[in-house]
Amino acid sequence: MDEDHEAYIMLLLSDSNLPTGAFVASSGLESYVTHGFFTELMAPSIIPPADKMDYTINFLRDSLSTYAHSALPFVLDTHILLEEALGVPDGGSMDDTVTRLMELDDLYEAMTLNHVARRASKSQGVALLTLFSKGFSKPQLSRHFPSPTSSKQPLPEARASALVDRLKLLVRRQETHGHLPICWGVLTAALGLSAERSQYLHLFLQARSVLSASVRLNTIGPYAAQQLLSHAVRPLVDSEMSSCKHLTTGLRHSRDGTVDGVAEDGTIHGPAMTWPLGEILAGRHDLQHSRIFNS
Question: Second label for 130, Cα 20 to 30 Å away, from 51, 167, 188, 196?
């Protein structure tokens, strides 16, 4: 796929108007603020209190780090799995692809340590599948979009649409979970975005979502959020990408049958949670007397 097309897809996916449900999630920021971590109670009086932008950057750095280490391996493995499935010339059977997607989904469910994060991930994941079906499908305008010449083999777009519809049905039947990283990998692979750009955009949107939640919580203003997005987010995203873009879940097998991401000593360089405090505070979200967000 040419770079112009990928750039256009990234512009479409970065649109804040996309109905993905991300606006109802704060990634634990609301609980973090409620529990007093935006104040320095023990600071000496001779030291001026830290600015709320500093607290926001601290949260963003730790939150983005743990999310990159835990989610990017699933985005990568899902993306590669879909690319391989959609690239089979004869269409192939989707049964094996769906089974492996469900395995990745089950592993992410097991690794997500609190029910609040699970709930947010599932709601946003299903929203992405719906977005692909309703927002990225070609409209029925025969004059402007003529049908391709008939072929015995289904087009990759048709196979992608069929796979997404099947995955949505499995989620509706509660036979799989539909977590966000897996559904994001499905969406971006189906749209033809490269794996690395998919990971980068996913991290950027996660950071932007946190800053959007911070504005709604009134911890920083919209101009301050834009300043952070312009100057602080890119170094954080670049750093996490360099550390995590090659991580894998250990469930993906190469064409020769070996497991990708496994070192010679058997170590899997894969997903991990790196911020226990954030997990604890996110799990206490529902205990707040009043709250704006669902997570």
Answer: 196
Give the span between the Cα atoms of 253 and 29, in whole angstroms: 36
Q: Which of 204, 187, 185, 203 is nearest to 195 (CA)?
A: 185
Of 147-156, 157-166, 235-244, least confident by mean pLDDT is: 147-156
Q: What pTM did the predictor assign?
A: 0.89
Q: Give the H or E element holding residue 2.
A: none
The CA radius of gyration of the chain, in Å to the nearest whole number, is 20
Q: How many angstroms separate the CA atoms of 27 and 267, rounded?
A: 30
Identify any residues that bridge with 268 across adjacent strands, giving them in sequence order. 262
DSSP letters, 235-280, are HHHHHHHHHHTT---S--B-TTSPBTTB-TTS-B-------HHHHH
| Distance from C-alpha of 215 to C-alpha of 217, rounded to nearest angstrom | 5
Residues 25, 116: Cα–Cα separation, whole Å: 10
Residue 184 and residue 202 in contact, taking contact as beta carbons nearer than 8 Å: yes
Take residue 40 and report the two structure tokens written for it.
């320095």
- Closest C-alpha among 87, 101, 260 to residue 190: 87
pLDDT tens-digit map of 47-94: 555 688 899 999 999 999 999 999 999 999 999 999 998 887 665 678
pLDDT tens digits for range 193-216: 999 999 999 999 999 999 999 999
What is the full DSSP assignment across 60-112?
Answer: HHHHHHHHHHHHHHHHHHHHHHHHHHHT-TT---SHHHHHHHHHHHHHHHHH-
Question: Rounded to 10 degrees, what is the CA torsion of 169, 172, 173, 177?
Answer: 100
What stretch of H or E contains 30? helix 29-34
